[in-house]
Amino acid sequence: MAGDKITGTLAFTVFTAVLSSFQFGYDIGVINAPQQPCFLRMLSILGSHLTRIKALFAANSLSLVGALLMGCAKLGPSHILIIAGRSISGLYCGLISGLVPMYIGEIAPTSLRGALGTLHQLAIVTGILISQIIGLDFILGNQDLWHILLGLSAVPALLQSLLLIFCPESPRYLYIKLEEEVKAKKSLKRLRGSNDVTKDMNEMKKEKEEASSEQKVSVIQLFTNPSYRQPMIVALMLHMAQQFSGINAIFYYSTSIFQTAGLSQPVYATIGVGAINMVFTALSVFLVEKAGRRSLFLIGMSGMFFCAIFMSVGLVLLDKFAWMSYVSMSAIFLFVSFFEIGPGPIPWFMVAEFFSQGPRPTALALAAFSNWACNFIIALCFQYIADFCGPYVFFLFAGVVLAFTLFTFFKVPETKGKSFEEIAAEFRKKSGSAQRSKAHVEMEFLRATGTV
Fold first, then answer.
1. What's the pTM?
2. pLDDT tens-digit profile of 73-128?
């Protein structure tokens, strides 16, 4: 079918969108990006009141201002300009972490939604890797050129601003939110490369009918309204699983382990970890529509559980057996590999599949906020935990990963290749009740997935 292929316009639009994700990764790789909780409200407002293209333009202005401040840091009070620039860049990163997956999810065909959604994470890890490479001492990571390194994020921001002019608007937003059916059809025809967009329009009509009965959903209502509580809890748990898995702790600890293994230049091994990051994220792009979101998430988490155990065993026995450092080093590479197969990319786009048009922006904003908040907690607390637990610290992470793996097994549904209507219809068929409301279907499906 025409709607199931990647057209030139679709590829161009997704590439343009993930330039934001690339900037996100670049900012993380250059310096640990500051977490900005205040983006929660802004993302909800941008996602609800601006078209997706206009929202990306607005977010891009933050990136340009942040890059400009950091790029000029050598000309003025460096610490003030860097802090201001990083704060604005951190706000930008928070905003696009919800906007990009939402936009891609709304323009992608159902059968390609997972694969294209994974490109958000692929662009992030690519940005991290590029920043690590050009941040080497003999390139830009030195006293003379560091300000250029910090300001380079303006390049993809400018490029994206130019390309966004040629990108079609989200047909779902145009039709469901703005009620502009003609523009929505025009956008769909460009994206699908076909004049026959009946299937997509029918799907959007069903979603519009449901959205018309929904009032604006606030953050509080996501937890107090039984229609949204369970899917929201599942969404938050997916993002908590990603951050509390210990992936950032692994990156933090890897340098000392590489040094123990006898590497004179551990920075190159760290770049190697970044390359593994990128390769296995690319692999997940091809696997996610074949194996499914839930399956890949479980495979990734299970692999990370065993890698964390091997990591701790290697650290505990390091004093007795020197070769244990290589066990720990191998565990790092495998841990990162399993992370990027599932827990890394999947939460970002899977959350959008849990909600219809009405609550989706607020739910994505809250999920992104939880991700950044957990990231902040790990960055703040890991050193103290590592000092207290010593080489046993990754046993702790193994326990956390196991708990989240069990939660995923019992509570997280498979959404591969299905619209929400198809998921709801399948549940109604299994439950034997064709009269259940959409809200109850959504909540009970997510709650009962582990036991049906």
1. 0.82
2. 888 888 899 889 988 998 898 889 889 998 998 999 988 888 999 999 999 999 98
Structure tokens at 224: 């107090």
Residue whose token pair is 């990051």? 277
**Is the separation of the CB atoms in 102 and 125 below 8 Å?**
no
CA dist 368 and 235 (Å) reads 10
Distance (Å) of CA 342 to CA 22, 99, 115, 276, 299: 19, 21, 12, 14, 7
**HEC letters along the chain:** CHHHCCCHHHHHHHHHHHHHHHHHHHHHHHCCCCCCCCHHHHHHHHHHHCCHHHHHHHHHHHHHHHHHHHHCHHHCCHHHHHHHHHHHHHHHHHHHHHHHHHHHHHHCCHHHHHHHHHHHHHHHHHHHHHHHHHCCCCCCCCCCCHHHHHHCCHHHHHHHHHHHHHCCCCHHHHHHHCCCHHHHHHHHHHHHCCCCCHHHHHHHHHHHHHHHCCCCCCHHHHHHCCCCHHHHHHHHHHHHHHHHCCHHHHHHHHHHHHHHCCCCCHHHHHHHHHHHHHHHHHHHHHHHHHHCHHHHHHHHHHHHHHHHHHHHHHHHCCCCCCCHHHHHHHHHHHHHHHHHHCCCCHHHHHHHHHCCCCCHHHHHHHHHHHHHHHHHHHHHHHHHHHHHHHHHHHHHHHHHHHHHHHHHHHHCCCCCCCCHHHHHHHHHHHHCCCCCCHHHHHHHHHHHCCCC
